[in-house]
Design brief:
Blueprint (H helix, E strand, L loop, with lengths): L4 E4 L3 H12 L6 E5 L14 H4 L17 E4 L3 E5 L4 E4 L2 E4 L2 E4 L3 E3 L11 E3 L3 H11 L4 E5 L3 H12 L3 E6 L11 H13 L3 E4 L3 E5 L6 E4 L4 E3 L2 E4 L3 E3 L15 E3 L11 E3 L4 E5 L4 E3 L4 H16 L12 E6 L2 E7 L6 E6 L6 E7 L2 E8 L2 H14 L1 H8 L1
Helix pairs in contact: 1-6
């Protein structure tokens, strides 16, 4: 009996792993275990086209029938027996020769919002459908969290003409991701499109009879709200691995080649993986669509022997569409970097470049895709000795 390769998780990291393996000629049996029902779908549309009604369904990630994969939708992984090399699920166990963990992450819950109808978190197709149904009733919307997801939800709600307020506990939007110059521009973009932006305010409670009617802030302010959407970050979806022997530390702790500490023949990728990044000499966990695809391709190359086996690294790329503006970021920006800005080559957009000393290490673009792409190519070229090894 042939023991299959098992991939756990049907989002971009898991599905891309299957695609990359087959594209490289991998002939072993593959089982794809997916907690969500139905065919796998691409999640970026959930906070945009699905909420505005521009699309009824998110786009499919792949045509699984072309990949010779045993897809098992609606099946949750509940445990892992490393000694027996079996994945435990809600309907029995599945043997594996190799295992790829790609279970992603879950929205971080805000206790102050629990217990009321009208409070939403956005992660799945069902979440988006529920929120879209609420938006058709023209509610007053409070978005808790000023990151990319919160910004996209606010943008979609305003596109429908809804009353929208963003509440962010940090002193400014995108504090963890962007420097002051960029976050100020994002805040101005929201305000220019009619979104109220309240920073340095925390949510302490919500009130109403059967459903939320008001949201209370730490300073005593009360905001009228018919719908509240919380986008305050995520936690790795690794609870099912508790007691398995894998090291769980803000995700599955992995070696530089994405193999899991504490096990042989097990890898973790995507939002649930925290690997040691040789480029920055520190552990990293990324929640980026592009990084998930890159990691999937890297692991596939390791399986087939025609890719790298040493270390995965990435320049880090993320994008967001808000109020008709495409925001793109590549590389890094942190407390050690300084930022300069210049008009885009076409005169319409704006490019922020982040420097570490005299060295450009990252960039953020507003409607400047060509400039960002050119910078990304230069940045990738600068790290070519590692990048080429890791991308196979």
């Amino acid at each position: 009996m042939r023991v299959p390769t098992v991939v756990v998780g049907g989002s971009v990291a898991g599905v891309r792993t299957v695609q990359a393996l087959r594209a490289r000629g991998y002939e072993e049996d593959i089982v794809l275990v997916d907690q969500e029902p139905g065919p796998p779908y691409d999640k970026p549309a959930l906070s945009k086209e699905i909420l505005t009604g521009a699309a009824a369904e998110p786009p499919a990630l792949a045509e699984l029938g072309d990949l010779a994969v045993d897809h098992r939708p609606g099946l949750a992984a509940t445990g892992l027996d490393l000694a027996a090399r079996r994945l435990v699920t809600g309907s029995g166990s599945i043997p594996f020769g190799r295992l790829v963990i790609a279970t992603g992450s879950r929205p971080r819950r805000l206790p102050a919002l629990e217990g009321r109808a009208g409070v939403h978190y956005l992660r799945t197709r069902a979440d988006a459908a529920s929120l879209r149904a609420e938006f058709t009733r023209r509610p007053r919307v409070v978005v808790v969290g000023g990151g990319f997801i919160g910004g996209e939800v606010a943008s979609s709600a305003r596109a429908l003409g809804l009353d929208v307020t963003i509440v962010e506990a940090a002193p400014r939007l995108l504090t963890r991701l962007m420097p002051l110059e960029v976050s100020d521009r994002v805040a101005r973009l929201h305000r220019d499109h009619g979104v109220r932006v309240l920073c340095g305010r925390s949510v302490t409670g919500c009130f109403g009879r059967d459903r939320v009617e008001t949201v209370e802030l730490g300073d005593g302010t009360r905001l009228d709200a018919d719908v509240v959407v919380a986008g305050i970050g995520t936690t790795p979806a690794t609870g099912w691995l508790s007691g398995s022997g894998l090291v769980l530390d803000d995700g599955v702790r992995c070696r530089p080649d994405l193999s899991a500490d504490g096990a042989d023949g097990v890898w973790a990728i995507g939002d649930c993986a925290r690997w040691f990044d040789v480029a920055s000499s520190r552990p990293v966990r990324l929640e980026h669509w592009t990084a998930a695809r890159e990691q999937a391709a890297f692991v596939a190359g390791a399986f087939t022997g025609d890719g790298a086996t040493t270390a995965f690294t990435t320049t880090g790329y993320v994008w967001s569409d808000q109020h008709g503006v495409r925001i793109q970021h590549v590389g890094r920006c942190d407390a050690a970097t300084t930022t300069s800005s210049s008009p885009a080559g076409d005169g319409r957009g704006l490019l922020f470049v982040h420097h570490d000393g005299d060295e450009p290490v990252g960039a953020t673009a507003f409607d400047a895709p060509r400039d960002l792409l050119a910078f990304r190519r230069r940045l990738t070229s600068a790290t070519a000795p590692i990048t080429e090894r890791t991308r196979g």
